[in-house]
Structures are given as C-alpha cells and as structure tokens.
C-alpha cells in the first residue's frame, strides 16, 4: 500500500496544482451550523497544502462509494470535473486515507480507540488508490 500511495503522490504532484491554505481535517465534527451559517473549527492541522487534501479527508471520513464520491466532487465544483481534476481529487482521497490510516495506527498503538476508521481508511487508500492509478495510466 505504501508503494502504491507513493506512486500516486508522484502522479498527483505532476498535476502542478498550486498549494494554498487548507484545513487538512475537514470532516463532519469540525463543521458547526447555526441558523444559516456554517463554521469550520479545529484548525490545528491547517497549513499550506494541496487543496484536494480537504476534499480527500472529507470523503475518506464518510462512507461513500466511488460513484457517490464523484457526485460529491461534482457538487463541490458545481460542474463536471476535468480529467486532470478527476484524477487529482480521486488520488487525494487515497492519499488522505493513507495519511489517516497511519495516524490511526499510531493512535491504536497508544491504546486509543479509533473505531472502524482504521479499516475504512485502509480500504479507501487501497480502493481509491487503484481507481486513481487507473485514471492516471489511461489519461489521454
């Protein structure tokens, strides 16, 4: 899995997406709502990063199928994704899943319970990694 994600990261870096301020922990407990407002809290992991990392984390912390993830990305963009965007954002679901999988291994080694996320993140890193690598290899 490590080699797969490493290869995928090289492909994603080749997309030359400009780094920018990212939250890097975008999942549902960090979104608060009040009337018609949405607040994003808990910025401890924020930094200059690939913007796909935020959507990667959001999706890998959910229980979406690959098709559902593509719909979420389409809603996020407000349009169909270009082939480069599709490759890149699917890659970052895998990359983010792998990052959080490693984090979960560490937390588990400390005796902390991470629930079913350990298995979910491993599965997502593998599944989305395969999808993204296929997209990159067949990109025309």
Automatic annotation (TrEMBL):
Protein name as it appears in the record: Phosphotransferase
Domain of life (superkingdom): Bacteria
Keyword Transmembrane helix appears in the UniProt entry: yes
Record organism: Clostridium perfringens
Record carries keyword Iron: no
A Pfam family hit: Choline_kinase
Transmembrane segment boundaries: 89-106
Record's keyword terms, sorted: Membrane, Transmembrane, Transmembrane helix
PANTHER family: CELL CYCLE REGULATOR CCRZ, PHOSPHOTRANSFERASE YTMP-RELATED
């Amino acid at each position: 899995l490590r080699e797969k994600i490493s290869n995928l990261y090289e492909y994603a870096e080749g997309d030359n997406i400009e780094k920018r301020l990212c939250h890097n922990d975008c999942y549902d407990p960090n979104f608060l709502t009040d009337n018609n407002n949405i607040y994003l809290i808990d910025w401890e992991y924020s930094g200059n990063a690939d913007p796909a990392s935020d959507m990667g984390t959001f999706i890998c912390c959910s229980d979406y199928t690959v098709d559902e993830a593509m719909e979420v990305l389409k809603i996020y963009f407000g349009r169909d994704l270009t082939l480069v965007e599709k490759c890149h954002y699917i890659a970052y679901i895998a990359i983010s899943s792998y990052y959080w999988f490693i984090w979960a291994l560490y937390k588990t080694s400390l005796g902390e319970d991470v629930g079913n996320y350990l298995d979910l993140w491993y599965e997502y890193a593998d599944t989305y990694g395969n999808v993204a690598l296929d997209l990159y290899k067949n990109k025309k």
